[in-house]
Every structure is written in C-alpha cells, then in structure tokens.
Amino acid sequence: MAVPDSVFRPFRSSDAERSDRSSGDRLRHRQKVRQSIRENIADIIAEESIIGKDRERIIKVPIRGIKEYRFIFGENAPGVGQGDDESEPGQVIGKAEGHGRGAEPRAGDQPGVDYYETDVTLEELIDIMFEDLELPDLERKKLRELAAQRISRRKGYRQVGVRVRLDKHRTVKAKVKRRLATRHTGHHLHDDHERFPFHDDDLTYRHLVTDTKKESNAVVLCIMDTSGSMDTMKKYLARSFFFLLYQFLLTKYRNVEIVFVAHHTEAREVTEEEFFKKGESGGTFISSGYQKGLEIIAARYHPSLWNIYAFHCSDGDNFDSDNPAALRCAKELAELCNLFGYGEIKPLGSRYYESSMLNIFRRLEADNFQTVLIERKEDIWPSFKAFLAKDRGREQ
Amino acid sequence: MAAAYDINTLEEWDARIREKVRDFGLDCYPQEFELCNHNQMLGYMAYSGMPSHYPHWSYGKAYEKLKTLYDYGVSGLPYEMVINSKPALAYLVRDNSLLLQILTIAHVYGHNDFFKNNFTFKSTRAEFTISAFKAHGKRVRGYVEDPSIGVEKVEHILDAAHAVSLQCRRNLAVRKRTPEEERQHLLDAARPPEDPFRTIHRRKAYVEPDLRKVPLVPDENVLLFIRDHNPYLAEWERDLLTIVLEEAQYFIPQIETKIMNEGWATYWHKRILDSLELPQDLQLEFIVRHNQVVRPFPHGINPYHVGLRVWEDIRRRYDEPTPEEARDLEPNHPTGTQKLFEVRETDRDVSFLRRHLTENLIRDLSLFEYETKGEDLVITRVADKEGWREVKEILLKNVGMNTVPAIKVEDADFGHNRTLYLVHSHDGRDLQLEYAEKTLSYVRRLWQRDVALETVIGGKRTLLLYNDRGFSTKTLK
C-alpha cells in the first residue's frame, strides 16, 4: 500500500462569514413554525402554561405541522441497551419519549425521536395570535383617542424669540467671540476695560416646538363571580379569557389598565392574585359586580377619556331575585363601554341542570354586548373571536 | 480563539500518521482536510457534510436543533465529519486542541479506508459524490426559482418524498433483476418441479403466473416505483423523486455500517496513536479523549464502543484463541489482522454482529433488552445463559436498515381503480399509527390516487387506507 495523499485547506474567515448557507432553509423553517403555531393556536392558548406569564418569557410550543413523518415502529418494538452487572429484568431505565422511535433522514444518525418543540416568546405568540384575527384597526375605526400631552421640545436656537427663552450662556459666548474677532479688524480696543456692549446679533433664544401626542387609554374591567360554585377549572377558563383580552388591548392602546372586581353577593375591587386564587363561599348577586364596575368607571375612568372594555365571567348561578337588577346594570354598563361581554362558564355537561343567565341577557338589546358560552378550554379562542367580532360590527 | 499550533504542525503530524496508515496496510482514497469554525461545522452537520446540498426547510430545522443542543451544552461538536467521496473530504474544527486534531486525522483515515473497501459502499460511486450533490442542489434551486413552480410546490413534493426516501432497496450489492429476467423467473417458478414418479402421481395443476400484474414481484423501492408508474407526474416532479432517491441510496451504506465503521475508525486511531510515540502531555490527553469517545452510553448503544470491542475481539480470537475458540476456527485460518481486513470488506452491521458478537462478548458488554411499558422503559431480558440469543436478535433488529419498517409495493392497480397496495413485512414490531397515517397521506400525494397499506396491528392483519375521505383502518380476515 502506498502512503495516501492529503491536502490541508486552512481556515479562512472570509469563507466562514460567507458560508452561512443554511440561512435560507432556517428562514423557511421559521416560517413553517409560525404557520404551524397559527394553525394550532387554539390548542396552544388552551395550554395552561401560558396564561398569566409575562411577555418576555420564552415558552415551549410543541409543533405538529413540521414533524418529518415516515414509517416507524411503534411501542412494541423492544430495543437493546448496555448496562452493567447490576442490570436485571424489571429494572426501569428511563422514560419513554414522545411517540415511538423514528429514523431521522440524516446519514449515520442513530434513529432518534422526532418530536419537536420550538421556543417562542409570549410576545411573538401574541403577535401571531392577533395577526390573523383581522382585528379592529384603531386608527381606521376612530376609537376614542385623547390628544393628551402637549409636550414642548427644544429644537435648536434662533436669533429671535421671547425674552424668557433667552439663553444667557450662549449669548455671552457670542459676545466674547465677536469681541475677539474685532481684534483682527484693526479696529481693536486699547483698553480691556472699555465697555463692549451686547449687540442684537449676540442674543440667542432657545427654540421650542410643541408636540401633540395622541394618547390612547383603555381599561379592562375584569368582573368575576367568586362565589362558592366557581371552582378552579371555571376560574382557570375565566382567567384565560381575561388574559387574552388584556394582551389584545395591550397591542392596541398605549396605556392599558386593568381592574379586577370580584363579587359574590357583594363586590370588591381586588388584586390580580386575590382575583384568581381566593375562593369565597355564598350565593351570587351579579348586579353587585356590575354596580361596582359602574362605580369604578364613574370615579376613575371617564368614558370620554377611556376606552372601556368590560367582561364578566360567571357560571350563571345567580339568585333569581337579582336578575332584574343585573339586567338593568348590564344595560348601563353597555352604554358606557366599547365592548361589554358576558361569558358563561359551564364545564361540559353541567349546563343542563344549572340555571343560566344567557336567557336573561338575551333580553338586553345592545349591539356592543355579547354573550359567550365556554364549556371547555377549546372554546376560549372561538369565544374570544366572537366577542371581538361584536366590536368590529359596531364600528363599521 | 486561535489554537496553539499552525497548519504546518498539522501537516507534519499528518505525514507521520499517513506513514503509519501505509505500514498498517490501510487502503485510502486521497484525503482532503478543511479547517472550519464551529458555526461552519454546525452547517456541515445539518447538511450531512455536503458542501453543496439542495435547499429544504428540514435542514434549517436540523441546524436549529443542533445549534440549540450545542448552545445549551447538551452536546458538543463531533471532532470530525468525513464524507464518503473521492477524494475523501473531512472537516476539522480549528478550535480543537492539537491532540484532538491528531486523533481526528487518524480516525478519518480509518473511515476513509472503510469507505473505499467495504462492499456496501461500492454502489455509491465516490468519485461523483460531490458533483452529484452539487448538481442536485442546482436542479432543485432551479425549480424553486422557476416562476411556474416555486418553493411551495417543490416542498410539497420534497416533504412527501423525504417521508418514504428510506423505503427502498436495502442491499445495493444485490443486483436488481430486469423486467425480462423477472418474467422468466416467474415462469420458471410456476413450472411444476421435475417429479420422477410422475406416472403414478396426479399431475399438479399448472397455475399460470399473472404476467400483467404491476409490479410482477413486490417492489421495495417505493419512490422509484411511483416515479416510474404514475404517468401524471410532471417532469420536474419525477426529477425531484430521483434526487431524493439517489441521496437516500448514497446514505444507506452509512446507516448499514454505523457500528462497524465507527468501530473500525476507532480501532485504527487507537493503534496509530499508540504507535506514534506521543510526547507525554499529548499521550495523557489522548488517553482521556479516547476514553470519552468509547465510554459506553448508559442504557444505550455507543457504536464507537461496541464496534471497537467487536473488532478487538475478532483480532484476539484469531491471534490468541482460547482452546475452546481454537476448535471453531477454520484450518489455516488467517491472522487476526488479516481477518480484520477481510471482515471490513465483506460485512455490514447485521452480518458483522451476527457473526462476531459472541455470547461472551454480549455478556461482557452487559447488553440487555428493554421495552416500553406505559411511560417507562423497562429491562425485559438480560444476556444470561437463556436470554443472550434473544438479546442479540433484538439488537440485530435495531441496527442498520432494520430500524426502518420493510414495506413493499404489492399492486399498483388494487381493486382495478389504481389504488396503490403496499404490504408491510411484519416482524413482530407494529407500526406507529400516527406516523403511518401521515406517511400514507404523503404516499397518496405522490401517487395521486388512493393508497392502502396492509400490516399487523396488535396481532390482527389490518388494512390502513388513505383515500379522499381521509384515513381509515379495517381489520382483515
């Protein structure tokens, strides 16, 4: 045998920089991921893990659309591993991963599991979510905007202006410059103490321009029934809905505030944590929650300055005697709000034997009022779309 | 980070290694080394090392996956990546230490020799590898840029073709019969055997073979079959299928010889470095690195480790057999090293392990069989006196192309409505149904008519059907 030939090609950083040839395929893959997220958005939203997380947070989204399917063996395909002297039948050596074993198409790779998760930030996810909702466009729809702050901003200097904006420092500097310059004219001064007065040309004024910032404000009134009949699952469904509403408004308004009103037979304004965690017992007066909402609006969020979105979640188990009052308050709220919604949360099956407010609210004739029925996680996204559709309809 | 050596140093070491390569009798293609940084290496890995490869999003996905694993420190970079081509092409990560480069260079010559001499690689035509991949890339890019085709349509076909790319001939060294030979073969097989007692025996009824059937005999080359028997495919679609098929066939030998090939390269890097008389500091680092490469994966199979152990055992059995083993050896048997070279030419993983993974070795390696039970992986059998044969059989099912279910085209006109009828040769392992469903939808996309797959699910013969109403299953009698 002869000595084999060999060649070494040194590293060239110019090649390294040019050779990012996977960029096109990565981009394409990224597009596929987004598309897949869009297609599975309802499932992802229904995942408990994203609700109530902050926007920077990275979440893992299992992607179905971009698995590379091929014929693979299922679960009854035993494998062989390497152990030690201690290995014996019955010993558990690990967890089964994903769905069976799949052969990757790469050369020389051991067959691996083709499950795939991708990282997206919540922000990205929310963008994708709202991207194809064809949501109400605020500019076009002239939602209530407030020309709020007239900020004066400095922008350069002028030779003319009002006396209060005289920039003394620059004025003196200008004078000093002029004085020094006179030396070269041959007309210079013999006596340093001779008076050298200010000239009109020295005077420098700060120039101000005024900015009109359009400020748009929105407030989300989250009203929830926290009576004994609202269990964790119901609260979770409500929470998901409020989360979406809040995140949506955040993308549309510069300034979004959120108010939590919890009610059973009487209503209180609470913090977010109390709102979702604390359970209370007792019956339900829905009107109390609405009354509280109206009070808060009257005190802090005047409808001429604020876009008000109110949403109420309950299981519909109201005291019959309260129904007329609830209807009356709902009407008032609907007049003040951009959108007012009522979501009845009835985990599957329970709607047949429990009382419902849906029939009562059918009598409320306001075109910005919407009732939705949420029976399970999968309903959240369609309900949300239906809720916002009301807004669109009204504005057009 | 610049490494503490320059390219001349590498060339000097390479020259010394090449002399050893010659002395040991390895037979290599000319070798090219290219130094790259870690980003380039990730790029090469995503594209199976090919310097030019056709674009497809799955490679972007592979890159992201590799990069994530690398960035989070879950997996390091491989020390080397070598391509079966003539000349053989290998990438070295420039940030590696000098010892790692020396080890890698020696390892690469092991692979190179294997590529050149192992029978499975004979069909890959190494001298055309690079240009073939380049041509594929160019053609696919052409279709993507063609305004009448575009990326969506190209992906539509490639996605589907990738799904069944490994559904093809496994042993390329076996010649495929021509249709004429196939026909003759069928006729011969149908003829009743010569019977010396034909005067007293009743004559067996002659069953005429159906020569109009397509395919005449079940065809395991699904892509090729669809390409040649679906007249509605456009020329460019046919070409895409050809490209995917050729790539799969290029990679199959590597899948088929993973354990042998890695074991072989490891065996030789060890022998070469042992003979180089490394200075002490390098020698110490070598011991550490080598042991990292060949450490057994707990509860898995490390091909470097298992491969190396089998090769070493072959050599030992021929050079220093135990009295028991000596009885089994053929008379005038070759020396250990001669035997190694013989085996590296004529075996692939399945035959290699079947012949050379002995009972003793299985026990030494503590191999066991495991199954999925609920959410857990549970050991079901260990390599004791009773169990080792079964453990070995299971191992053989999990190497090379045995990891891919064997599926053949049985009939292209099933039920006389051009339904493509596929049959899965069930070997005790059921198909994963979700994957089977999706893959069948891809086959249907390519075939453009209904497809059916006969398999066994939970002990019952089952027909998986994909038609315009979607996926359905039917139990067969």
| End-to-end separation of chain B | 67 Å
Strand order of the largest sheet of chain A: 10-9-8-11-12-13
How many helices of chain B in DSSP terms? 18
Q: How does the major sheet of chain A shape up?
A: 6 strands, mixed
CATH class identity of the largest domain in chain A:
Alpha Beta
What is the average per-residue confidence, as pLDDT of chain A, rounded to a whole number? 74
The helicity of chain A comes to 25-40%
SS strand fraction of chain A: 15-25%
How many DSSP-defined strands of chain B?
A: 10
- What Rg of chain A, in angstroms, do the CA atoms define? 34 Å
Order of helices and strands of chain A: EHHHEEEEHHEHEEHEEHHEHEHEH
User: Taking all residues together, what is the mean pLDDT of chain B?
Assistant: 90
Tertiary shape of chain B: globular
Distance between the termini of chain A: 85 Å
Q: Biggest interface between protein chains, with counts per chain? A: A-B, 71 and 109 residues
Query: What is the succession of H and E elements of chain B?
Result: HEHHEEHHHHHHHHHHHHHEEHEEHEEE
The biggest beta sheet of chain B is recorded as: 5 strands, mixed
Give me some keywords for this one:
heterodimer, A: 396 residues, alpha/beta, Rossmann fold, 3 domains, six-stranded mixed beta sheet, two-stranded antiparallel sheet, 12 helices, 13 strands, 22% strand, disordered C terminus, B: 477 residues, alpha+beta, five-stranded mixed beta sheet, three-stranded mixed beta sheet, 10 strands, globular
Compact summary:
The complex is a heterodimer of chains A (396) and B (477). Chain A is of the alpha/beta class and 396 residues long.
